[in-house]
Amino acid sequence: MTDVLTDRIGRMKSRLRITGRPLCTEKLRLMTESLRSTEGQAEAIRRAKALASSLERINIWIDDDELLVGHGASKRGGFELAGDYGLFTPDEVASLKEEGYVISPKDEAELAELNKYYKGRTFVSRLGGLLYDNQRLWEFMKSGVVLPPWKSPEHGSGGGYAQGGMGLGPGLLLGAIDYRIVLEKGLNQVIAEAEGELDNIRYISADTAERVVYLRSIIITLSAVIQFANRYAEHAHRLAEMTPDALRSSELEEISRICRRVPADPARTFREALQSFWFIYLVITPSSVAPMGRLDQLLLPYYEADRSSGSITDDEVVELLAELRLHDMEIDRVAGKANRKKHSGQAKWHNCTIGGVKSDGSDATNALSYLILEAALACPTPHHTITIRVHEGTPDELLEKGLEVVKMGLGLPAFVSDRSYIEFLVMNGQSLESSRDYVLAGCLDAAIPGRSRVISFPFVVVPLIFEIALNNGRHPRTQVQLGPRTGELEEFEDFDTLAEAVKTQLAHFLSLTAERNHAEVAVQRGAYSDPVLSALFDGGASLGRDYLEREMPFENGSVMCPVGMVNLADSLAAIRKIIFDEKRISLREMKEALDADWQGYPELHEEFLAAPKFGNDDDYVDLIAADLYSFWAETVRSFKSPFGSQHVPTAISITSHWAAGELTGATPDGRKAGQCLADGSMSPMQGRDSHGPTAAMRSALKINQDEYQATLLNLKFHPSALSSEEDLRKLALLIRTYLESGGKHVQFNVVDRGTLLDAQEHPEDHQDLVVRIAGYSAYFVTLSKTVQDDIIARTEFPSIG
Amino acid sequence: MSMSARDVTGEIFDIQSYSIHDGPGIRTTVFLKGCPLRCLWCQNPESQHKRPDRVVEQDGSTRVIGRRTTAGEVFDEIAKDEIFYRRSNGGITLSGGEPLAQPDFTRAILELSKEAGFHTAIDTSGYGRWSSVEEIFRLCDLVLYDLKHLDLVQHKTITGVSNKPILQNLGKIAKLGVETWIRIPLVSGWNDADENIKSVCEFVSATIESPRVFLLPYHNFGEGKYLALGRTPPEGFEAPKEERLSEIKAFMEELGFRVQIGG
Prior knowledge:
heterodimer; A: 801 residues; alpha/beta; five-stranded mixed sheet; three-stranded parallel sheet; 33 helices; 16 strands; 49% helix; globular; B: 263 residues
């Protein structure tokens, strides 16, 4: 089996540009030119023509060595720009350049020109324009309770929201399209279905004309996708004729043949299927959150056919899957300044789901599940990411293979529980069969291919709401009365009264968040239609309705996600213990220490830090967390979603716990002002768990995770805990136990050198870091400097560049 | 559940969950405080005395290592991870210090764990009077048994005690039919010479059927602990070179031992 780079992949990998990547303005220019020339036509048609124009004219190329072809941008490694989201103002461009993005003077001038067209048409300006004169909601939008805080109607957050990532937006849906439609039917068939609808149209209802327009937009765009593939076919053929190397020439002819076939017609071979998938994926990206679906299921029939006819080897499959990784590394859209800082400019969640059960409940693991992991071992790039669905029948070998990949320190794959995800979907009215076909969208949210998509995904900063509760409904910094008056500190006579006030504020802000979500969906409807995506949802081509306009079989269009819930639980536990149980100080005295950011209160700070913390299997605090999560889920579900169904609770922080932490003052869990919040949703606050991974899991198991669309538990390990095969087997059993006992997700952060260096410098933040070397385990921070240095010297990972 | 077993008291200094190098499956290791041996190269100085130790951390703060507790409390802590033991066929390992040095306490924890159906293991130097430790070994599913030197004089120099009871006890444990893994800490120039390795192998071969051996090369990770205790860390000890370790491993494998380097 291939577990080293083949020469071909090695050469392609060396061409990858990690830094100094250029901006690609061509797609935006082509689309904008088209939009300018179609003013006055129906919006859906204009957008269809804009996409078609870009697909028909954008610069294409085929690199040496490529067998899988197709690039999203017009330049190698180009960052794409999406006009729909926000403007690229001069200060945005300046900061892009500062960070090493290559922007030619010509591109810069062009960007300024293109900006003019989008002024007033961006998602940010539409949402700002809708809400800015509503005193109640506008103050809420500015408060930072939902990330990011708005500064003006045109600018989400002085640039931070432009091309955000903190929440979703146009083209950034967590939409699981059904790739089987493309691979099995082919786009010609889908076009024929839309044409059939048009042929039979009867003008009998108010929306018939809209449907006609939409069906036409589907035909325009899907035809353009086929045209795009044909351009590659022609290009490959031309290159084949020019290439002196006979071997490469025949490869290019084969590429040409494949691109003529797919995605127009059904795929017949593994390479046709992968190429068909890739063309569609290119068209629905550069979305940073487009799921890849269950690739091991999707590609299996083609793989099996090729293997039984002997036309492909496993090594060749691994090479193609590695090529998919490299291609995916290139897809990126530029995020706003604030967001880039957190994600090193390249955050994306192109999630490939493997393993799990089939719709009949039997184990779905197959040879491709392993080969997808082999490709990650052979080509260790951070993208695409992989999630392994785990159920009782998942083979140990799959988990252990996954852990071999984890060991490389890329933070992938993640492991999720089929039981919990399927239970969640069934609770939401889905049939068992379709629930079993779920995929992970974005980071970890449940989605059913062709049957669901999330449009609105606000990150709600829970500890900030808690600060507001301690301030009788006023924002702690601006003193604006944002929430109900739930009482001054002196009025809370016992813990329950205080907890009740916090819940009242939570419910209030969730109701404002629900309103915000309605507005967010409303401004997108009609403005940002996407006929390609819409045609690839269930019945999409015959329905003739945009995905923003239809109710989905699993309607999770609008969710609400808490950030820092664990910090709130830890804070409430500390208050209960120190203020109400032990009556050491008053709430007011605590508030003074918080306002001073603990400066001048070292003993009090110690005391609050020493209070029970989530992640150590201590009921005192864990039950508070469990109660908060139940309350959140129940409250979220009580609000109607913009699509007629109810809002859906989810709980992952991505990287928003950094941004949220910056907005939040000191908290009674001992956290200082501006420090980041707990990551994920089931993870203990960083450095506050000291009882090992099983205790962290036992705390998380007290929360009803089944009612959440996603939860996230991140555990940190030193590579020494994964050194032998025996270690991997035991870690696999730890994963199984957690996922079979109520856990929904776990992933492992294998710490790198940088973390160890940071732990040396800031031991207080890394109390939980366990290192195991030569059979001896210890908390890293307790070791002497000499020994720490020794361990650091041994912690080297293969570079991911 | 036996009330009397729950009430037995003893001294411990740590309970470590997700212990994966001390026996099969996912385990919790309980470190008992106090050891009759004084190995020259000991890397767990905080485990030597039965009484609590006060340590001064690098930042100047002080902390007490060691506490008196009951077998019941220890068991309750261990039992929290029951779901993980069940799935992985894991359980508990009593380590130290020297668990045999607190025989009543050790026996009580093992009894409670056996009753609960957990896999039980003990990590021991084997040093103890048979009459007072026999019952302990009968309660074990697995014994991790340290052998440091076969020569009586050398052993006394290295550890401060005779190896006579250690060698005798191993034979008796073998007769009980309890699975036993041999652990050999290896320190260059002290116990890694051919002569000792050969004697160890001869003894092990004669005592245990198809033995499983772990070679534990010396490490100095206890250095910080010595400093925190206000003591001088042992100096001049080194692990055997990689090549020597491989040689020893190969030699033992030739004899039919299952050998692993590292815990």
